[in-house]
Design goal:
There is one protein chain. By secondary structure, this protein is mainly alpha-helical. The protein has one domain: Methane Monooxygenase Hydroxylase, Chain G, domain 1. It is 73% helix and 0% strand. It has five helices and no strands. Helix 3 packs antiparallel against helix 4. The termini are far apart.
Length: 173
């Protein structure tokens, strides 16, 4: 029998389940990264329908990741109770407790961290781009609102130059 088809001992079942859950999380994070990349290219080409579709897919992936994260926390707490550990142990600590699965567990953790880092970088770029676009739109709207509110000469910053206040003597003349 190969290692993949060998039966799992009951003592290793919780850590193998955790490893499988981490693999599911890795797959969801990869999907989210793909959606972020497609969204970014749609933003560059100003393809609004594609941007909206990508946003919806991203939100669905994020909600699945949150559900998986909650399951992971519960599973880690269960493993901690089984091994009489206090607090929520980290993956490397669990890998030390289960040396038979240490290499696989740390490998999945490493891949997951790498994909999460890429997601953070992509999200940062998308956030900066969206912030710049919204900043320009905000400036344009303030200029239009200023023009509607009062006619006159505008500064290079887009704010209207107001005429000085007319004094009482000048008004009576």
């Amino acid at each position: 029998m190969s290692a993949a088809t060998a039966p799992i001992s009951p003592a290793l079942k919780p850590i193998v389940d955790l490893e499988n859950l981490l693999k599911e999380m890795l797959e969801e994070h990869r999907k989210l990264l793909m959606h972020l990349e497609v969204h970014q290219s749609a933003m560059q080409s100003l393809n609004l329908p594609e941007m909206e579709a990508c946003r919806t897919r991203q939100e669905a992936a994020r909600s699945r990741i949150i559900r998986l994260e909650n399951r992971r926390k519960a599973m880690v707490q269960q493993i901690a109770r089984i091994n009489q550990l206090t607090g929520e142990p980290q993956i490397p600590a669990l890998a030390e407790i289960y040396p038979q699965r240490k290499a696989q567990l740390l490998a999945v953790r490493g891949e997951l961290q790498l994909v999460m880092k890429k997601i953070a970088e992509r999200s940062h770029v998308a956030t900066r781009l969206a912030s710049a676009v919204l900043g320009h739109l905000n400036t344009a709207m303030r200029i239009v609102a200023g023009a509607v509110g009062s006619g006159g000469i505008y500064t290079n910053r887009g704010t209207p130059k107001m005429a000085r206040r007319i004094g009482v003597i000048e008004a009576v003349g």
